[in-house]
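Key result, reporting period 2: structure in, sequence out.
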């Protein structure tokens, strides 16, 4: 079959089975498939709304083409979100990653440059002075030395370069936003994922279960924000002991002041890097509170704490004592030393 036949099926509002999507995914990654045909297929899927089976199948194929990350067995966490919410928030999950790691949780964060936002994870890292083109071996070394590492998706997934061109031509979220957090080459045991489809939160948690996560939280905030937002309009699902169930949080009961999503808007990578540094230096703001909440959820998803509230308190303490800033500085130092060594060679 060709990609066109699958596109026709999807355009008729017929979802693909898991096996059909496996075939379609192989065609997407086949360099002989025209880019225009791939774009047409992705747009059709988006218009229909992607299903659990379609997402799981694409994630399986995409991960099969990823470079290997030979990590020792351990309790690794990723807090990468899907992006694509169009809300232009600052880099909440990237900032939170340093706070999570400051609490002795091994973070292997998957990320990319901006595709449908003003600043992707890799963009703000670069603005902070952090190198994003590490080899897989160096990524592991960074993790071993600092407790956190960042995997730039195009480096991990060589076949994504062509797909990235297609995604940029489309200019809006596609199924690749949804599969991104599912294709981390590390064998993750725990995960926090923000998605931009509140109605799909429980289904997404079921995909995580299929992919072997032991414990995870999926969240969609106000207006489909791919983070937990600072209001009562959060939809969350908890994967625990093989079951998916709803998780309810009350912002004010967690000691956080409510704020509109506009208060979390960021800017360019350079502007977001300033926000991130000021936050880790203890500057109080809605940005600070958003990082507390999302870090608290990640620590709870990881099993580090027994409640989201406990996670928030740990997050606050690690920022105000300078531990989180020290974690950032350790990664910057490693990165700068790495670049100096390369310049000498």
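The corresponding designed sequence is given below.
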């Amino acid at each position: 079959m060709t990609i066109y036949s699958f596109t026709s099926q999807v355009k008729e509002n017929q979802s693909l089975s898991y096996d059909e999507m496996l075939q379609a995914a192989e065609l997407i990654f086949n360099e002989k498939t025209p880019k225009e045909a791939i774009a047409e297929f992705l747009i059709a899927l988006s218009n229909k709304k992607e299903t659990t089976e379609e997402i799981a199948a694409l994630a399986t194929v995409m991960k099969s083409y990823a470079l290997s990350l030979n990590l020792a067995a351990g309790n690794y966490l990723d807090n990468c979100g899907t992006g694509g919410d169009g809300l232009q928030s600052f880099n909440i999950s990237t900032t939170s990653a340093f706070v999570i790691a400051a609490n002795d949780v091994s973070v292997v964060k998957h990320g990319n440059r901006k595709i449908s936002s003003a600043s992707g994870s890799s963009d703000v890292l670069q603005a902070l002075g952090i190198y994003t083109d590490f080899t897989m071996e160096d990524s592991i070394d960074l993790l071993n030395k600092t407790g956190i590492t960042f995997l730039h998706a195009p480096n991990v997934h060589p076949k994504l370069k062509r797909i990235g061109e297609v995604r940029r031509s489309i200019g809006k979220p596609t199924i690749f936003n949804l599969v991104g957090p599912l294709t981390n080459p590390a064998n993750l045991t725990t995960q926090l994922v923000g998605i931009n489809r509140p109605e799909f939160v429980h289904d997404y948690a079921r995909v995580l279960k299929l992919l072997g996560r032991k414990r995870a939280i999926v969240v969609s905030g106000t207006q489909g924000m791919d983070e937990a937002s600072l209001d009562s309009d959060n939809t969350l699902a908890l994967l625990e002991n093989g079951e998916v169930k709803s998780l309810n949080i009350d912002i004010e009961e967690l000691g956080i002041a409510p704020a509109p999503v506009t208060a979390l808007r960021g800017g360019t990578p350079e502007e977001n890097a300033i926000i991130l540094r000021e936050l880790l230096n203890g500057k109080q703001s809605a940005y600070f509170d958003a990082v507390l909440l999302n870090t608290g959820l990640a620590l709870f998803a990881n099993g580090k704490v027994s409640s989201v509230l406990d996670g928030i308190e740990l997050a606050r303490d690690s920022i105000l004592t300078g531990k989180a800033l020290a974690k950032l500085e350790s990664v910057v130092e490693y990165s700068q030393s790495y670049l100096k060594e390369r310049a000498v060679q």
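The two ends are 49 Å apart (CA to CA). The first helix runs from residue 3 to 11. This case is discussed further under Risks and Mitigation.
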